[in-house]
Design goal:
The chain is mainly α and 44 residues long. The radius of gyration is 12 Å and the shape is globular.
């Protein structure tokens, strides 16, 4: 919908995580959402 992030995450069990590169020029809120969810990943 309007005003929401462009993805939805459904997960079960462990999530490995790792390095990601994100272009934050359009929305710093997208980066903030990724940082907040990083705590759920095994490798941040």
């Amino acid at each position: 919908g309007t005003g929401t992030l462009p993805f939805l995450v459904h997960g079960r069990g462990a999530i490995p995580g790792g390095e990601v590169v994100v272009d934050a020029s359009r929305s710093s809120q997208f980066v903030t959402a990724l940082l907040l969810s990083a705590a759920r990943f095994d490798a941040g």
